[in-house]
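The instructor's notes for this session suggest beginning with a concrete chain rather than abstract definitions. Hand out the sequence below and ask the class to guess, before any prediction is shown, which regions might be ordered.
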Amino acid sequence: YQRRVRGTEVAAMLATPFVAITMCCSLTAPAWDDLMGNITAHHDNLTAVIPESYVVGASGSLTPSEFSNRTASHIPALHQLGIKVYGMMPMTAGAVTLAHDLEARSKFFSEMKQVVASEGWDGFALDLEGPRENSTTAVALMGFLTEFGNQLRSISPDHDLMVFIHTCPTADFSLECAWFNASSPVSLITMDTYTASRSAWLRGFRDALVADPGHYLPGMEYNQNLSPYYDGEKNLNYMVSKGVTKLVAWNNAPPNQAYWDLFGEFLHGSK
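After discussion, reveal the predicted structure:
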């Protein structure tokens, strides 16, 4: 995409390009083998994966999801390929509990640090879906997310926290995307952009730009707004023109080589 952007803008826009794919759901051992083969062959065109990891109990305890141990066993091999691994963690009710319960929150952070140290996670992506809550809950939840991000960064400055939300501004907990700014340790992944038409995708993208572009990862889907045969290249070029150089693709490995090529051009620019 360098050929379409003025030269002085390219370095800043492509300073930290990022392409992640989610790995879901309930992957069997043969499915993992297929994915690892695909990722190994194309690892230069990928930054990160987001597989299933843990669920959170009411007391703040972490419980491995049914397939998280299988994920953890692949983390060393993924790291050898230069791929970061962010654990997908559903946290709707758990996030509200942890936002209000200091004891549970302390237990959660303690256990989170233990699994990061023992298994090598590079961070987490919270599936933050749920009912609309009042502004008091929203403020408490933002405090929890900020603390979570800071706790991860205290382990390593390279660790990150991402959250899946539906829309921006979001109906989830009445959060306003403007609250996620350059000083936030949290990044947004919008879910309303996964299957949207191009007009709806553009509208959702513009709404999310009230957040700092460096903290915004549009959610995109194969055969939809990420398709190299339709609007995928146009959408990615538009993102770069607005300073957004990160995306999350749903779900698992791309269906064919054309998608990997599109990822590569987005990450590395045109030579």
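Then share the key points. The chain has a mean pLDDT of 83. The chain has nine helices and ten strands.
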